[in-house]
Amino acid sequence: MIYSTPSCVYCKMAKEFFAKNNVQYDEFNVASDMKAREEMVEKSQQLGVPVIDIDGNIIIGFDQKTLEDLLGLKK
Amino acid sequence: MYDLVIIGGGPAGVAAGVYAARKKMKSLLITDSFGGQSLNSAGIENWIGTKNISGYDLARALEEHLRAQADIEVVDGDFVSRVEKKDAGFSVTTKNGKKFDAKYVLVASGSRRKRLGVPGEADFEGKGVVFCTTCDAPLFGGKTVAVVGGGNSALEGVMDLIQYASKIYLMVRSESLRGDPVTQEKIKSHPNVEILWNTEITQVRGGKFVTGVNYKNTKTGENKDLALDGVFVEIGLIPNSDFVKDLAKTDAYGEIIVDHKTQESSMPGIWAAGDVADVLYKQNNISVGDAVKAVLNIYDKIKKS
């Protein structure tokens, strides 16, 4: 799942990356969803987007290499 | 071996890639991501040919234009960590450990955000200290924040935050703003914005998250503190030239010194264009033109050799 804000381009890039690789995800807009924001802060111990949670692995920011490794994708 | 390795995927790198491909040079472009520093911009109004384009859309358009060229290879999601001189040309190494040989290198790696360099800044990064205002401004709804800086990026940061934060301090080191007068007026007349002149942050404080900063008035020497929920750092740029510093001469700011007629650096075989070069004005449009100039000059060299 991804925690994002509508204005964040790195969130957009991450979502496009998921779409390109046929990865299903849930999205939470932490600009308006306060419960999701608290959850994001709890998980990542910080307040910055995007935060991506892949089976409990928390990635802060759009780090393509780490995502590829975690999702078992090969370029 | 490549004729040309282009380092960077901003306006300069992409312009170089398009021209190199059309000249049928065997070329490779290596970039972390496309679009350059404007990527985060909500709207660019001076990119010639478009009235208004978001940084994201510009990045997409640049990438598409580059990938539409038949004769160019692209490595993305990676960046160059080292360039070495070889007998015939250069060896380029990336962070992910890839190595490429090139006759010529064009450095178009742009620049990155400058940091305050004060205690607490690194500890609270992402915990109230923000380097991407557009991304994180919506998380500061109803909060008290400070934007640090006096240039266009600081002013745009304030504009991004006006929609959300209840109080915005603009902390400026000097006694004047450098950004566009139109934006200056909007900011100065807004009731939620207060400009603190002659201020220099000395420490970022907090617990789990930022709770405030200590700062000095540079005129009076007086030390003060300010309670804040967020600190948005927009104080300028450092050129990404570290990986060629031993080869090409750089100026006091770390910008690669080039011959402005050709864009070639002090090291024959290495060119630079865009914000990483010692150009007087840092502009997308200028970066494009300078990169084209460099590629045409490189093409002349190849034809002669």
Radius of gyration of chain A: 12 Å
Average pLDDT over all residues of chain A: 92
Proportion of residues in extended strands of chain B:
25-35%
- The succession of helices and strands of chain B, N to C, reads EHEHEEEEEEHEHEHEEEEEEEH
The description of the largest β-sheet of chain B is: 7 strands, mixed
This entry's quaternary arrangement is: heterodimer
Q: Which percent bin holds the helix content of chain B? A: 10-25%
The secondary structure category of chain A is alpha+beta
Content-based structural category of chain B: alpha/beta
With helices defined by DSSP (H or I, 4 residues minimum), what is the helix count of chain B? 6
Instruction: Name the helicity range of chain A.
Output: 40-55%
Strand order of the largest sheet of chain A: 2-1-3-4
What is the average per-residue confidence, as pLDDT of chain B, rounded to a whole number? 95
Strand content of chain A: 15-25%
Structure, explained:
The complex is a heterodimer of chains A (75) and B (305). With 75 residues, chain A is α+β, with helices and mostly antiparallel strands. Chain A contains three helices and four strands. Chain A has helices spanning 9-20, 34-44, 64-71; strands at residues 2-4, 27-29, 51-54, 57-60. Chain B is an alpha/beta fold. Chain B is built from six helices and 17 strands. Chain B has helices at residues 11-22, 55-67, 133-136, 152-162, 181-188, 284-304, and strands at residues 2-7, 27-31, 72-76, 80-86, 89-94, 99-107, 111-113, 129-130, 144-148, 167-171, 193-196, 199-206, 210-217, 223-227, 230-233, 237-239, 270-272. In chain B, helix 1 packs parallel to helix 2, helix 1 (11-22) runs parallel beside helix 6 and helix 4 crosses helix 5. The A-B interface holds A 5-13, 30-31, 37, 44-49, 60, 64-65, 75 and B 33, 39-40, 42, 55-56, 59, 77-78, 96, 125-128, 130, 132, 134-139, 141, 160, 208-209.
